[in-house]
Amino acid sequence: MQVRRILTGIVGVVQSIIGVLSVIFVCIAYFDFFGVRNWLNANLETLPFYLTVILVFGVFSIMSGLFLIQESLELRFGGA
């Protein structure tokens, strides 16, 4: 049970970090900081679709990671 709690917490933190980084990337690409659109050679017609998909992935990743962290804390403190 101890190993499961530790792994759940680690996976939750990593998953949340990946989600936050993907949301930050979407913001940087949308507002074109640092010339990211040119660097990616992104087509302006399809860019909003790709950014929306990445944003949805990021939000779900953050939510799932937070749920895993909550489960890890419940296993640690014996919550209901």
Ordered list of secondary-structure elements with their pairings:
Elements: H1 2-30, H2 36-40, H3 47-77
SSE arrangement, N to C = HHH
Percentage of residues in strands: under 5%
Q: Total number of helical segments? A: 3
Structural class: mainly alpha
Find the count of extended strands (DSSP E, 2+ residues): 0
Q: How much helicity do the residues have? A: over 70%
**Overall average pLDDT:** 90
Major sheet, described briefly?
none
Distance between the termini: 16 Å
Low-confidence stretches: none
Radius of gyration: 17 Å
Shape: elongated
What does this structure look like?
By secondary structure, the protein is mainly α. Helix content is 81%, strand content 0%. The longest helix is centred in the last third of the chain and has 31 residues, at 47-77.
Which descriptors apply to this entry?
80 residues; mainly alpha; 3 helices
Summarize the structure.
By secondary structure, the protein is mainly α.
